[in-house]
Amino acid sequence: MVKIGNIELGDFPLLLAPMEDVSDPPFRALCKENGADVMYTEFISSEGLIRDAAKSVKKLDIFEYERPIGIQIFGNEIESMREAAEIATQAEPDILDINYGCPVKNVACKGAGAGILLDIPKMVEMTAEIVKSTHLPVTVKTRLGWDEKTKYIVEVAERLQDVGIKGISIHGRTRMQMYKGEADWSLIADVKNNPRMHIPVFGNGDVSSPEVALEKRNKYGVDGIMIGRAAIGYPWIFDEIKHFFETGKHLPPPTIQQRVKAASRHLQMALEWKGERQGLLETRRHYTNYFKGLPNFKPYRTTMVTAETSEEVFATLDEVLREYSEKTFAEILNRSF
């Protein structure tokens, strides 16, 4: 049984990665329904929380059905991060996560996210202060290092464990790689195999199918897998991986009806949570994956990602359902499962 603190997560948990403008409550609801064991919020700016900025505070919204859920914070000032941890704790998540992995320029180049990998002593000190500031189990999401010359993750993970974190998720790339090249899980395995490590180690990076997930589990011995980009517009991936682990067989792909229903529910929840304009904008990136593989789908996708009103999107989804519903998805793709 894998545990973060006293939270039991099963034998091999699948985690939904925190993703900016993606891992919001509507998306998390769909992932939870489809097998995600642990989820994290979008990352939240420590400075934003301290200033009571509306966008940051809104990201603290969590719901009972999501548990266990973690709130993730980021920043580059130790005192601000300590205060943000206290504020986030008041929202009553199950886990508090620290973002030491975000590679984007306006975060990392300001010393936050993966930027702190250039200052490991500060990273350790900040983590220790956050652990002291909350009763919640603290976890960390990070990368192998800043660049090829600074892959100190084995030492870093051990030092973070020593100051009190209860779990670590490692993306198998450096900051300089961003999302290019292939994720290197061998160093993640080195962290897991370090005899001094006793907290769970979760691997992240390039898990795009049940077969890949099984390979990562068997080859690298991690305690669980964190899934990010592969879940965008495809929340079914968690159940598909679990089914493949148990049976060695694939679940049938979601039907057109299931895909349209999921996309419609996603948009409806986004509208209710963020309003018409923001709900429309932040759901657009999911449509490609909801309907990936459908022949002649481009005109529908174009309409949905350029629509100015939610009514247009819902009407287009109804058209998709009528156009493709006579055949199963497997028949449309001319594949067997």
Can you tell me about this structure?
By secondary structure, the protein is an alpha/beta fold. The protein has two domains: 3-247, Aldolase class I (TIM Barrel, Alpha-Beta Barrel); 256-333, Non-ribosomal Peptide Synthetase Peptidyl Carrier Protein, Chain A. The chain has helices spanning 25-33, 46-50, 54-58, 78-90, 105-108, 120-133, 153-162, 186-193, 210-220, 237-247, 256-274, 276-283, 287-290, 298-306, 310-324, 329-333, and strands at residues 3-4, 7-8, 14-16, 38-40, 44-45, 69-74, 95-100, 138-143, 167-171, 201-204, 224-227. Helix 9 (210-220) links the parallel strand 10 and strand 11 (224-227). It is globular and about 60 Å long. The mean pLDDT is 92.
Helix content: 40-55%
Contiguous low-pLDDT stretches (5 residues minimum) are none
Coarse morphology: globular
Rounded to an integer, what's the Rg over CA atoms?
Answer: 20 Å
Number of helices: 16
Number of domains: 2
Amino- and carboxy-terminal Cα gap: 31 Å
CATH homologous superfamily of the largest domain, by name? Aldolase class I
Largest sheet: 8 strands, parallel, barrel
Number of strands: 11
| CATH class division of the largest domain | Alpha Beta
Computed structural class:
alpha/beta
Beta-strand proportion: 5-15%
* Biggest sheet strand line-up: 3-4-6-7-8-9-10-11
Topology as a string of helices (H) and strands (E): EEEHEEHHEHEHHEHEHEHEHHHHHHH
CATH topology of the largest domain: TIM Barrel
Q: Work out the oligomeric state of the chains in this entry.
A: single chain
CATH architecture of the largest domain: Alpha-Beta Barrel
Integer average pLDDT: 92
